[in-house]
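Appendix B, Record 12. Input sequence as logged:
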Amino acid sequence: MPIIKQVVYQIQMPNNETAGTTTKLFQDEKTGKLVEFLSKFDKEFAKVRDAAGNIIYVTLEQLIPYHAEKGRLAKIAAPMTIPEPEEKPPVTAIPAEDIRLNMNAATAEQIQKRLPGVGYTTAKRIVELRMSLTGERFSNLKQLENIPRVNWEQVIKEDLIFIG
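Logged structural output:
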């Protein structure tokens, strides 16, 4: 069994707790402390609060049910909580995988393979032009028009490249 490191956070206990509320008391098998079960964390951990108000994360295995009048009870299965519904990912307008070629990050081999009508020599010239610019980056697509023998209007119109 792996050794679990306990992480302790200090919080303020509310002063206006009502006597009618039921607490989920457990005894920490490792330390013997009485703890209040707050929530299940991951699959095998529990978030509990000790008598001093510290929030501690412990394994579910080391929690033993405890009753205020009866004392320690027989060990049962891990406390069950109602899982919160998982938050749905936001809908994005930008596709996750961009199939266009980033001209500021592409190598000569990538340019040759991805752009129609561009050979290795022309691709090397594009990379050399990029390296000669300030910051070694293209700032706009019009700078590519300095490279001859490529129909840049068609490449831009077909949305094959971008400057990232």
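Confidence is low (pLDDT under 50) at residues 1-22.
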